[in-house]
Amino acid sequence: MAFFALDFDGVLCDSAEENAASAWKCAHKLWPDLCKEDYVPKEVTQRFLEVRPYLEIGYQAVLMIRMILEKQPLSAFRDELSQHCQRLLQKSELDRETMIHQFGASRDCWIRHDLKGWLQSHRFYPGTLTALQKALPCHAVVILTTKQERFVQLLLEGQGIVFPRENIWGLDRKIPKEQLLEQFLRQGKNEIYFVEDRLETLERVCERAKLANVKLFYALWGYGTEKERQLVRNNPRLTCLELNSFNALLSNNNLV
Most CB within 10 Å of its CB: which of 4, 89, 96, 244? Predict the structure, then answer.
């Protein structure tokens, strides 16, 4: 039995437009004088899609919306995101935990009033749900994500996927993915396949000697940039994975 550790956003689900919409709803409440419209403007969504590859943790989407309204250049998102997020938190007299709560609350409000619309704002990558359904009876599968766990559970349920809640490791648990992989190894999970679309996360895994035998896959269909894809191709520790190959891997019942 193989052990699959899968990222969620950028591997199973494309949530970029929902991120923009939920982040705007949150920003609208935090900064009503700045975010005056009830719904995210199309030009803001388009810009968010361009800078989405640099999002590290979900709550930062709200601060990225404000950066977009400040007309920050691409380099600010690419090279200075953490600094700008800290600046905007301080300027707004907020902290990280409060922002996480506020962002989650904006999604909860949307879900309460328009569950169908919220579900439809997401797109699962072609074939991933079918492959996941085939994998669940044959392999151990966990989801490692920086999204809050209840939203992952709700999205999977909305697609008819029965997925064990305890196998979703999200933002609520506050454990880096590389630490979780080490934890799984200590529990005897030896044949680990880790699929992720964020190069920085994969590089942190590469730095840990204890994770040398974990099979690392970079999801080419996710939110990565062309520069990152080239870096992955030059890293012998990482394997580039196309979407159809990922679906085939997940569906393979013959993996040990």
Answer: 4
